[in-house]
């Protein structure tokens, strides 16, 4: 049993004008596909084969860097595609909104903290909204690390993540990462984030 590149639930052009079709297609068919293939390659003939992606990435400190990098890349992009949508709620609601308000003061303050984390992640990496018990926190990780990893500075369950590698935005936004982050907020699938959040 090996890991499979997921099929997107929407067209590559569906997130335009915020995320352009060419970026989406290359990101999915080249980058995410490479993480998936490299992960499968690294697991071939290994006694780790058959373990779930969660089992692998929560123990990366004991595993080869190739599994940390490609296992993280596989998991992170699965999440990334799911937390974006051309439709859905444009803002969080219900218990998730209550928890955001409780943890950050307001949705706008959450957005500010999340945007800052995404902006200030130096080089390639991700910014996250993480559930830790009853509260929500924002963090960022380098490369393809994520908050499920036992090496993460701030650990917890990722309910939202933004890819800030240049490959996620350079074709349309070049060096303008702030514009990409603002655009990402227009396509966040808050229904999916709410599903990942355990009230
Ligand atoms: Mn990426």
Structure description:
The protein is α+β, with helices and mostly antiparallel strands and 199 residues long. The protein has a single domain, classed as 3-Layer(bab) Sandwich (minor pseudopilin epsh fold), CATH 3.55.40. The chain is built from 8 helices and 3 strands, in the order αααααβββααα. A 3-stranded antiparallel β-sheet has the order 2-1-3. A hairpin with a 2-residue loop joins β1 and β2. The site of manganese (III) ion has 7 residues, from α1. Manganese (III) ion binds next to α1.
Concise account of the structure shown:
This protein is of the alpha+beta class and 199 residues long.
Descriptive key words:
about 200 residues, alpha+beta, minor pseudopilin epsh fold, three-stranded antiparallel sheet
